[in-house]
Amino acid sequence: MKILSYVKYAFVFLALSSLTVSCSKDTKGNWWDPDEPENPDKPAPKPEVAEKPRFMWIDAAANFPRFANSKENIATDLKKAYDAGITDVVVDVRPTMGDVLFKTSVVDQVKKLDVWDSGYRYYERTATWDYLQAFIDEGHKLGLRVNASINTFTGGCKYPYGLGEQGLLFRDSSKKNWATTIYLDDKLVNVMDCKDDNYGTKFFNPANDDVQAFILSLLRDLAKYDVDGIFLDRCRFDGITSDFSDDSKAKFEKYLGHSIGNDIASLITTYEKQWYAFRAKTIHDFIVKAREAVKSVNQNIIFGAYVGAWYSDYYVYGVNWASPKYNAAASYSWASAEWNKYGYADHLDFLLLGAYAGVDNIYGSTEWTCQGFCQLAKAKLCGDVKFAGGPDVGNATGYENGGQGVAVTKTVDACINASDGYFIFDMVHVREYNYWQSIKTGVDRYKSTLK
Fold it and tell me: How high is the pLDDT of residue 29?
């Protein structure tokens, strides 16, 4: 059931309650206990405290062998998540290779993805039923909220170990100008010509108008589903080396109001802070457009983003996820007053924060502790948006081999009390290492504090 349904029923109940009280001829007792005489010394009952949401991410590739061809497995694992105290799942329906797992005429459907199980291989999807709809049906049946996520500015993958090339950028050579241009080894290189395995995931240039129009079309189709929310993942540049295309250069010159010549080195040195701010503006402005695209289809869908919590380093991706009220320039040498203007928190309904600290760094007050990540984020968001922070329980230091149930329980406490919810990545790790009960223990302890 949707959030708005709950709100609607709540208003109806309150309206009926107020009518009953106002129309009653005998108003001796308190309205919550009409048979008991008034007692001014009796404390009023505590108002009910709304529970904070708990999100579990479901990566497309990592869970593909489990879910691609089995609605039964989807139902089984969503039930386990619900029983563990999870309120929201986030279903990845556009993996990094850029094809999709929902209905759209804009790009191809995912047919196969790389997986790891004692070695790399492909897993093929032969089912024809709607992947996203299956999660919506099963999740809503349980009472879970079902959110969809997309990898935003990625358009292809060149998988290692001979697994092959997938995605729009590999299929359609006419879209090569959509791909990001990187500055590598003192040269400008279109990422499609780059042989470096570090650039196996092929990013689009976020400053390209055609790329933005393409992604906005995808979002409008995704918003036609009965999802509770849509979250943007990888809504960013591909690191500090990206994007140095002619298109980005022209837009940067327009931003500055004058030409910068052809020397890329001068851009990096002379215009460093302006360059960072321009990139943040590019992503900020796209976030505004993306929100409008989603809300134009369904105003009730929650619009949000996923980001890494490491704000001090995250600027290299051209992302300012803070509030525009937050003065980053006072704390960070790379930030300018212009950078501060392009915080996009006030354009989100909810933010998912990857507080991906190691297993020995759950509590603390600094970056690279789960609790500290959340506390610092709250100060940067300035109340503009609610957020949920949480751990990576499969890849972060100390989690790689499982056996960390006690630590998982602690992350619930550390994160849910320092933010507006809890977020855990990823269902594949929870399933593999059987952390369901560990999550439930943490959630139950949290819920006990609300009574």
Answer: 30
> Looking at 92-106, 166-180, 186-200, 315-329, which range is the least confident one?
186-200
Q: What is the dihedral angle through the alpha carbons of 314, 315, 321, 324, rounded to the nearest 10 degrees?
A: 150
Q: Name the burial class of residue 347, with classes exposed (0-12), middle (13-18) and buried (19+) by CB atoms within 10 angstroms of its CB.
A: buried
pLDDT band at 114 (very low <50, low <70, confident <90, very high): confident
Q: How many helices (H) and strands (E) does the chain have?
A: 15, 15
Q: Which long-range contacts (CB under 8 A, 24 or more apart) does 165-170 make?
A: 166/97, 166/98, 166/99, 166/112, 167/97, 167/98, 167/99, 167/202, 168/98, 168/99, 168/107, 168/108, 169/98, 169/202, 169/204, 170/202
b/e per residue 216-237 (b: at least 16 CB within 10 A) = bebbbbbbebebbbbbbbbbbb
DSSP label at residue 194: -
* d(C-alpha 134, C-alpha 131), whole Å: 5
Q: What is the DSSP string of 80-145?
A: HHHHTT--EEEEE-S-TT--BSS--SSSPBP-EEEEESSSEEEEE----S-HHHHHHHHHHHHT-E
CA distance 325 to 327: 6
Q: Over the stretch 277-301, which tens digit does the pLDDT of each residue have?
A: 999 999 999 999 999 999 999 999 9
Confidence of residue 162 (pLDDT cuts 50, 70, 90): low
Does position 43 have pLDDT exceeding 60, yes or no? no
Strands, E assignment, 185-270:
187-190, 201-203, 229-233
CA dihedral 260, 263, 267, 270 (to 10 degrees): -90
**Could you give the angle at which helices 71-83 and 436-448 cross, rounded to 10 degrees?**
40
DSSP helix/strand/coil, 443? helix
Coil vs helix vs strand at 156: strand
277: left (phi over 0), alpha (psi -120 to 50) or beta: alpha
Tell me the C-alpha to C-alpha distance, in Å, between residue 209 and each of 36, 247, 252. Answer: 67, 9, 14
The one-letter code for the residue type at 129 is W
